[in-house]
Design goal:
By secondary structure, this protein is an alpha+beta fold. It has 3 helices and 4 strands; from the N terminus they run E-E-H-H-E-E-H.
């Protein structure tokens, strides 16, 4: 997976409990911060959350892959 820009504007979403297809924006900010926020959640809570950006949606596993990719970039 090609690393996305760390500073890409992103939103952390959580499925809403009131309607089956609803969701709530939990936080907004740079993709790197949203990825850390998603992975800070309990593994069960991560299943109801995802990150949305103009590059598409990322689940917890994809966010973790982005963090690993960023950590391997040359300094």
């Amino acid at each position: 997976m090609q690393p996305l820009p760390m500073d890409l504007p992103a939103e952390l979403h959580r499925r809403g409990s009131d309607l089956p297809d609803s969701d709530v924006i939990v936080a907004t900010g740079p993709l790197v911060i949203m990825a850390h926020g998603l992975l800070a959640l309990d593994p069960e809570a991560r299943k109801c959350c995802w990150i949305h950006s103009e590059a598409g949606d990322l689940d917890a596993a994809e966010a973790e892959a982005q963090l690993e990719g960023w950590s391997q970039l040359p300094h």
